[in-house]
Design brief:
Number of helices: 1
Distance between the termini: 18 Å
Shape: globular
Strand order of the largest sheet: 6-5-4-7-8
Radius of gyration: 16 Å
Structural class: mainly beta
Number of domains: 1
Amino acid sequence: MSHLPEGMPRPLADELTEPFWEAAREERLLVQRCRACGAWQWGPEWCCHACRSFDVGWAEVPRQEGRYKGRIYSWERNYHPVHPALRGRDPYIVVLVELPEAGGVRMVGNLLGDPMQKVRIGAEVEAVFEHHEEAEPPYTLVQWQCI
């Protein structure tokens, strides 16, 4: 099921972010991890945020009970469309999800479900992979839903 309205642009993948997008298509959640110091980081960068090493790779976020889980660190109910395709599709909820199993890094995404739902800081969420096979090239978004 697609929660993204028609007309939204495809996320741009480049040499740095391609491993994330490829893994998402396989329903795996990756974030960067430094091979030198072991620090997790998000968003993607060419060097480690902690030790400045350029030996940064990608690691799968450990699953809990077979799912990628996180906690809502912050959120916003957005009433102002950031793209013309979102006009008339508001409100929608944007969350900042903390991933405890990946060093506490935080990832931005949409919270699925009722746009007027009560949202609680610290609430558990799980990743939902939304496939867009009709796009050229196909891609997958990582969305979030309350557990």
